[in-house]
Amino acid sequence: MIVDSIFVSMSVLLFTIIVLAGAFLAGLVGSLTGLGGGVIIIPLLTLVLGVDIHYAIGASIVSVIATSSGSAAAYVKEGITNIRIGMFLEIATTISAVIGAIITVYINPGYIAVIFGCILLFSAAMMVRKKVDHSDDKATGVLANFFKLNGSYPSADGTVKYGVHNVVGGFVMMFVAGIISGLLGIGSGALKVVAMDNIMRLPFKVSTTTSNFMMGVTAAASAIVYLHRGQIDPGIAMPVTLGVLTGATVGSKLLVKTNTDKLKIIFAVVVTFLALQMIYNGLAGKL
Amino acid sequence: MKQTGKHYFADKDIQVILGTLLRVGVIASMLVVFIGAVIYLSGYSREIIDYSVFNPTKTKYSSILAIFQGLMSLDGKAIIQFGTLLLIFTPVTRVVFSIFGFLIERDYLYVLIGVFVLCVILISLSNKLVG
């Protein structure tokens, strides 16, 4: 590849500056569109800078911990996060994240790129589709009652109560999300939304904040495996984490006063292009 | 009704503590990473990077012990890795605090769930999982 020859003899300083800038943009756009920084920084590192995908995954997972913990800190104080649902589902996501982080090294990097591309396409579709709130306050299942998952959150019109549906289905979907998170080093927010919004039928506010709350622990479980394997290199993880976190912080401040509908559509096109590139390179054995 | 009111109050307290803990953890670890970055860049900035092929033995600091040994010599890379380690353990500490919170609330089912999650993370600390 031509790109390789340009960047192959890059100095540490230049590499750090380029990755910092790229990670800042990834964090900014990731937080504005709700896509997350990890899914953008990995294609950037691998496709543009020719970094091995294993290093890219290691750096990305660290940035996922930083951004999710940072935003969870704000949400949890507002009392919208359902800590019980979070901890209950963490049983599924931590086990599966460790499994994902273990098997990632046995899978051909090309296949990882292909899986990554597919998840990117799915995330892009989830980003532009119209969201429908399925929540209601009918407390139904035996499991939801046993685990005390039904809850309430404060809103402008007083306290809103909600019931949790299909606990088993949500748990299984979270297990899948955890495997993908451990395998690819991303937060896999798109899959968690499916589990929480569509299967367990939580209100948006609760699902977004609770998913964020869980993401840190899930990512930490796989990050430890990556660290021991040498996939977390300080030279890459440093600019990625600092850049993504700064970008995401700026993004969350802008989010309040920006209409992101157009941005999401433009960005869905970009992400689709990146996804196809990842899949193509993966199949061609270039990664 | 008095019981539920009390319950809600305890939950609220835990939420504030957890929120503060997460914020402090992220800020502290990023500060350490930043300090490490300055030292790292002042020492290595002209070196040529090579990340095109994954080499598990290339990163010196791939265990907690190695990171602490590197800290002693004030190596920028080790300081960055230490910051990363602090960041990784921020949500883990959050789990520990949640367990105490549920213990105070006498919600033993969730104490058990928290301990289970913590065990999974402790198991992931084992070097044997790396493959």
Explained architecture:
The complex is a heterodimer of chains A (287) and B (131). Chain A is mainly alpha-helical. Chain A has 12 helices and 2 strands. Chain A has helices at 2-7, 12-33, 38-48, 53-78, 83-103, 109-128, 142-146, 167-184, 189-199, 204-229, 234-255, 261-284; strands at residues 151-155, 158-162. Chain A has a two-stranded antiparallel sheet with strand order 1-2. In chain A, α2 runs parallel beside α11 (234-255) and α9 (189-199) packs antiparallel against α10. The longest helix of chain A is centred in the first third of the chain and has 26 residues, at 53-78. Chain A is globular and about 60 Å long. Chain A starts with a helix and ends with a helix. With 131 residues, chain B is mainly α. Chain B has one domain (7-45, 59-130). In chain B, 75% of the residues lie in helices and 0% in strands. In chain B, α1 (2-44) packs antiparallel against α3 and α2 (64-72) packs across α3 (76-104). Classes of the chains: A mainly alpha (287), B mainly alpha (131). Chains A and B meet through α2, α4, α5, α10 and α11 of A and α1, α3 and α4 of B.
